[in-house]
Design a protein that fits this description.
By secondary structure, the chain is mainly beta. The chain has one helix and five strands, in the order H-E-E-E-E-E. It has one helix at residues 3-10; strands at residues 15-18, 24-26, 29-37, 45-54, 57-65. Strands 1, 2, 3, 4 and 5 form a five-stranded antiparallel sheet that branches. The longest helix is centred in the N-terminal third of the chain and has 8 residues, at 3-10. It is globular and about 35 Å long. The model has no long low-confidence stretch (mean pLDDT 89).
Amino acid sequence: MTLIDEVQGKFPGFVFTIIPGSLDEHHGHVRISWYYGSADKPQTFTGQEFMIVEKGSIHSITVFFDAPNKVF
């Protein structure tokens, strides 16, 4: 089971969405912003990921979660 499988198992019906225009890349360093939630509350969680890409594969990834948007 992957981390994504585990998270999605805890929040059935939630989906990850990359915020349009947030992808930024420079010499193999990539940053994206995203939100995660249900159809009625798509931005339940928000955050960013920072990745290092080497030879076409993700070498490392760091995930930052913002505080939940007052849903719990």
